[in-house]
Amino acid sequence: MANKVSFHVNGEICSVECPENLTLLSYLREQLGLVGSKNGCNQGHCGSCTVIIDGKAALACSVKVAKLAGSKVETIENLSAEEKLHPLQEAFMKMGAVQCGFCTPGMIMAAKALLDQNLRPTDEEIKEALRHNFCRCTGYAAIVRAVKLAAAMMRGGDEIDLVSINKEQAAGPENSSIGSSPLKKDARLKVTGSPIYAGDMQIDEMLHGKLLLSRYPSAKIKKIDPSKAYAAEGVVMVLTAAQIPGRKGFGLLNPHQPVLAEDRVRYIGEPLAVVIAESEETAASALDLIDVDYEILPGVYSAEEGLLADAPQLHPGGNLVHQVSVQRGDTGQAFARADVIVEGEYTTPMVEHAYLEPEAALAQTDENGVVTVWTASQGSYAFREMIAATLNIPQEKVRVIYTPAGGAFGGKEEPTVQIHCALGAFMTGRPVKMVLSRRESIIMSTKRHAARMFYRHGATADGRIIAMEARVILDAGAYESLSKPVIFRAGIITAGPYDIPNVKTDSIGVYTNHPPAGAFRGFGTTQVAFGSEQQVDRLARALGIDPFELRRINGLAPGKTTITGQLIGKDCGYQQALAAVEQSLQQTLKYLPVPKKGKKIGVGIAGAYKNVGLGAGKVDQAGARIEIDWQGRLQLKVGAIDMGQGSDTALAQIAAAETGLLYEDFEVISNDTALTPEGGVTTASRQTYISGQAVCEAAAEFKKSFHRSLTECFNLHSGDFRPVSGGIEIKTGKSAAQSFLSFREIVAAADKAGLALMGESVYTAPETFSLRESADHEEGLPLHLYNVHFAYCYAAQVAIVEVDENSGEVEVLKIIAAQDLGKAIHYQNSCCQVEGGVLMGLGYGLREELQLEEGLVVSDNLLKLKVPMIKDSPQMEIFLVE
Predict the structure, then answer these.
(1) Around Cβ 554, how many Cβ atoms within 10 Å?
(2) Which of 96, 199, 395, 422 has the fewest CB atoms within 10 Å, i.e. the most exposed one?
(3) Tens of pLDDT along 750-799?
(4) Angstrom distance (rounded) from CA 488 to CA 507
(5) Which of 768, 661, 298, 325 is nearest to 513 (CA)?
(6) Which residues is 742 bridged to in the sheet?
(7) Distance (Å, whole) CA 642 – CA 649
(8) Model pTM score
(9) Cβ atoms < 10 Å from Cβ of 139
């Protein structure tokens, strides 16, 4: 029954006849078009929908419109209604508190409710005010700094001390050189809550799709009968595997995962059918009308179980996904002469990415039969190939346009709704939009591989690690996804950042009836970093050697060799990272408080390294193009995808540095298959390096054509002009007619003269090679043939914790992190990325786990996943080793 309610939204009165269950979030987004309040969970767990109601922060998804009579509601859109940003919005941009941006509007509104009452908040008061707001990207440290800066600005600015708020230089447009920190390209859109995400988009005549997901983790499908759903009012179409016109499987490397399951399901969350209807509610209701006859089959619920001879076979080739072995030296002889041998077994859990933006896509087919899909991904070209194969049309008939990802971390490398959405638009001829609920996202999407690791290390009394044997078993879940390269990297980095002359390792991936495991930040190196560092600590205790010293003795450095035989060059900063955190620790220990009774302070050190680029002999390329369009817009077109990590900004900095033009003039267009060159998938820490090199080369070519155009069309030479916003300023005396030339005038003149005003390049990374059967250097064989990767990054961290001796409860007091990343293009953003990684690691180590029971997902919401919130964020100190 509908009730009429009147209340104010951003100063405007709203009179609404609403049912009892209509939420404020639905009303704002769907009826008022105020999409700044984001829907991250619709369960009151994430805070992305935070608004201010009668002066207090509130979760719009948990507030019923029927209860709002006489209330005053303020949303993020009201903060910049007159184009002038609120101090909080400015501060979030300046402090680097904006990454993927999905949580940002909610964070800002929660912070505004605080600052409206208290302009001198402590860190603890800020964390209390933002305790309901979840961020997966930043680690919260930059957010706290931003709120403190905004408070100072609102007090009048006389007390602003940026150094005390953030040791790094605050971002600003006036400083955009390499290594500085200009305002990020997308920051303004994100702090204003602009409709930039796929879930925010609307098209006339749009239909909605929902997926029927499997009820069982392992079952045979005897029959799917969609007739009742098809007959329901408002349902336009129900699609099953039988209606797929082309390839019925998908996958970045192995397209064996069904788009829609036809004869068997292998995990909870596997789609069987898609309902296309006039509304999302109608589509969701119709799912219950689809009859599925299952025959439940025995399942495999651990990787170890999957290796047993009598285990159910989940795929025609068995349960073994892939195996990688590394052999170096003679471990038998080495262990025989070791003074100390330690053995250990370690496990790491399956973990959910928990990006805040649930997967979404919007698709439509035009009059020429071109299917256009707007979606977040980590590679539009890869998605285009999979969509075209399913629709059985040429790739040229599919256009994939990247919409900003509200977080990804590897989890958006594989499609979820995108193929189904395109299929719906292709089959119905009308636009189709699909958005996963938080539960659907959790049970469908790829995960971090759970791992069981068996290690054996041998060392001599002087601290030299001379032998290591390891066996790593990874739970790959139901389908391959990106398990093969994850297994490969777990195998080649099993030892961690150490030069060990005698090694024998096996890394094995196994199919189970769990959600597919795929790419996740660290990509196989994260699990083995835990196992190997535990072993190094145990060796240090057994030998009586300081754990820093043991890592120094054995740590990789120029001239040393990885376990795969690769000679390390001068770009290795592991030893410097160790030194940085050790020095900081020594200073920090002087000021640690005395622990309370029953508690003790503990200090831990760990190191790690990870590949840059695809490696293993794969051709690793990216393209870039710089041009000026007819409207005079200076455009940088790249295939790299900015998921919040800041690649658009870093690449624009490179373009500005190489061309001599202004950073703020560059408009970055990324990953539109109709407009941009291919850049490959944003994965393997590759884009800043590879796309950055492509931008360097394209910029050099553009600069030549730009200067040639100025010379031939305007008789201007180097030194006659300088870049200014929107064009160039001609120095006095060089032209009596004018002192300013716009980009529009320059491109028009160049076109008239028949001059190409553009620069483009495709950059290919340095050559790498497949893993050799033996990592021992063969006489006469060039050492570069052992280069499995062309580069690595290195890290060292210290954790200072307080432990309750009775309960075992751990409070992390401080993390000191040093990262060797080469050259930091955007210094502040690089630090903020490390902070986000630190908190994600803290969650991985202490809290998070995707809990499964016989294949059923127990942790099916953000609360149950136990992702770290702002009160879990410790003090952090970040060092960049350049």
Answers:
(1) 23
(2) 395
(3) 999 999 999 999 999 999 999 999 999 999 999 999 999 999 999 999 99
(4) 7
(5) 298
(6) 727
(7) 9
(8) 0.96
(9) 29
